[in-house]
Amino acid sequence: MSWIDICAIGDIPLRGARKIKTALGCVAVFRTDVEEVFAATNSCPHKGGPLSEGIVHGQSVTCPLHNWVFDLNTGQAKGEAGAITTFPAQVREGRVWIDSTSLVARSAA
Questions:
Q1: Beta carbons of 9 and 91 less than 8 angstroms apart
Q2: CA separation, residue 61 to residues 30, 35, 67, 98, 105 (Å)
Q3: d(Cα 69, Cα 5) in Å, to the nearest integer?
Q4: How far is CA 95 from the centre of its chain?
Q5: For residue 17, what pLDDT is reported?
Q6: Residue 24 has what pLDDT?
Q7: Which alpha helices (H) appear in 48-99, and where do they start and end?
Q8: Global pTM value
Q9: Which residue in 67, 89, 90 sits closest to 80, CA to CA?
Q10: 3-state DSSP call for residue 34?
Q11: How many C-beta atoms surround the C-beta of residue 9 within 10 A?
């Protein structure tokens, strides 16, 4: 894995998200707890809703357009036939890091 520094953990509101632009397109980085982050595609597969504008609760996010709920660990929609792509993310010394190799590999596929 090749990790890139995205931002300070404090730049993402608690139970909120931040959108970043990558080679893959826009990726949402979610902060679910004080030191817990997840990263996933920003677009809901149902109607393209911007997930970075959704409601973060527990380890899930709810799409702001039609209320689809996605598990941020697996990307699977809860109760629906759909999923989002997730990416490795972590917090180190107060900074949020995302695996850049997963972004490049998926955009080339």
A1: yes
A2: 8, 17, 9, 18, 24
A3: 28
A4: 16
A5: 97
A6: 66
A7: none
A8: 0.90
A9: 67
A10: coil
A11: 18
